[in-house]
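Supplementary Text 2. Reproducibility record for the structural model of the 440-residue chain.

All settings were left at their defaults, and a single model was retained for analysis rather than an ensemble. We include the record here because the model underlies the residue-level annotations in Supplementary Table 4.
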Amino acid sequence: MTNLLSRRSVLRGAFQGAVVSLGLPFLDCFLDSNGTALASNGGPLPPIFGTWFQHLGLEPGMWQPTTVGPNYQNNSQLKVLEPFRARTNIYSGMKYFLDGRPSESHVTGAQIAATGGIPNGTISGPSIDSVISGVIGKNTRFRSLEVSLSGSKATVSQRSGTAPNPSESSPTALYARIFGSGFTDPNAVEFTPDPINLARQSALSAVTDQRQAVMRALGSADRARLDEYFSALREIEQQIALNLEKPAPLEACTVPGTAGETVSGTVLEDVSANSKLFAGLLAHAIACDQSRVFNVMVGSLGLRKSGSSYTWHTATHEEPIDEALGYQKEVFEFTRYTNQVFADFLTTLATAREGAGTLLDRMLILWQTEHSYARIHGLDDLPILTVGNAGGRIKTGIHVRASGEPAARVGLTVQQAFGVPVQAWGELSNMTNKTITEVI
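Retained model, structure tokens:
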């Protein structure tokens, strides 16, 4: 069995001229007897870094815990993250500094969050995820994977100010990107396998013979693990294929349905559905060591309820504060909804079994936003979260308050946790050489 499989094993099959690749998760035969380290060298499973960027901040006074340190209690706006409280650090009081430069609303804060400073035109360094991927993702198939939940290809991930990392807004496109590799057409500049055919055919069907041979060579525990893994992947494929089908005609419907791929847009329900599909696909890619870095862009500015043109962004500026509640009710509901989407995303990662634990056990996800109080485009007392301990590199379950300190302190701490050889990070007043010692 050791001659047949290694942790780098990839199943390959041909379909319509394209080569379909299917990676394998870390099976028991790749791990030590405790299921926590690699059997080949005794080293730990590689750490995973992810970012979740969500515009429009959180409601002041409704997310900050009342106590500092461990064993904090979640405030109302973060109650949906209660299942992950022991894994979550909350950082409050920090700010983005403008250094006398004008603030481009909803852009400047995102730039500082991602790169530690405000770019001079297009002159800008790499985003934090690109820096970390240069250390932990050099030998993976994808240096990083970027997805957008807003129907656009927006991203804050970049190699430089002129080289953004390509983002996928469609789970179908991400599916094709992960599985449709390895084909070179001598007569075409580029080739992209048809995601519709891939989803209907199934990547699993394209590698049937290899898959069956691998299953026969494994022990009972690994066979059960792979069967569970393949079943979960097929469920994702079936959901994608279903969304590609033209709906059956309904006599009472005055507007005929149209064929298309998964709906990628700004309606909250579509955002939630696509997030779950993205979570499943990213979990597959991570479990198979295809990538160790991922980025999710929520792009909250245009999000709206079904049947309404009233966006979250508009609500932050136009909705009056409810006198009885003391806050903007619609804005609170928009935020609660997207925080639930984040919680569902985490649940997918926390239930993806791997050895003695789950995928989330070796991750750290950095949650950031561009404003504190979106109503006034505030840059003070920013909400920042990290979820996960990066495979034991970070302490969790702590509320850290650092009033008036640059938000880059969190970014510096995270980079050092992943082994980036950096002693300071950021530019001008956003620069810091102080890590968050409470969580190291």
